[in-house]
Amino acid sequence: MLSQIPPRERQIVDLLYQGGGRTVAEIRADLPDRLTASAVRAMLKRLEAKGVVSCTKSERGFTYSPTVPDAQASRTALGGVVRTFFNGSPVSAANALLGMASQIEAAELDELEHMIARARHLQSGGK
């Protein structure tokens, strides 16, 4: 769903993921180029209609937040990257990331090893 959002609306959704709930004024302040408040509100209404953003009343006014959990949005986005740039192969994507090994700290490599071990364990029926 998020991959089908126009670029300008996607900028707004990305801001909401970065900082949690935001008002129209806060969104406007953080966009790379200035839009009118009415333009931002119109895009937020479209995002609400698509089910991507929700609006709640708060002490700061109306606050907008993403409706899709961060982890789900990350998986969806990563899946799109893997399909687009790595022919759908998670192994190719992991290989590309590991090709950046000089930029990866030892603790992060240890974490990757543990994640691989856990994935093997789950795949073999362990819990």
Structure description:
- The protein has helices at 7-19, 24-30, 37-49, 70-85, 90-98, 106-123; strands spanning 53-58, 61-66.
- It is mainly α.
- A two-stranded antiparallel sheet has the order 1-2.
- A hairpin with a 2-residue loop joins strand 1 (53-58) and strand 2 (61-66).
- Helix 1 (7-19) crosses helix 3 (37-49).
- The longest helix has 18 residues, at 106-123.
- The protein is elongated and about 50 Å long.
- The two termini are 31 Å apart.
- The mean pLDDT is 86.
Fold topology:
Elements lengths: L6 H13 L4 H7 L6 H13 L3 E6 L2 E6 L3 H16 L4 H9 L7 H18 L4
Antiparallel strand pairs: 1-2
Helix pairs in contact: 1-3
Features:
mainly alpha, 2 strands, 6 helices, two-stranded antiparallel ribbon
Brief summary:
By secondary structure, the protein is mainly alpha-helical. 60% of the residues lie in helices and 9% in strands.
Number of strands: 2
Mean pLDDT: 86
Distance between the termini: 31 Å
- The largest sheet has its strands arranged as 1-2
Number of helices: 6
Shape: elongated
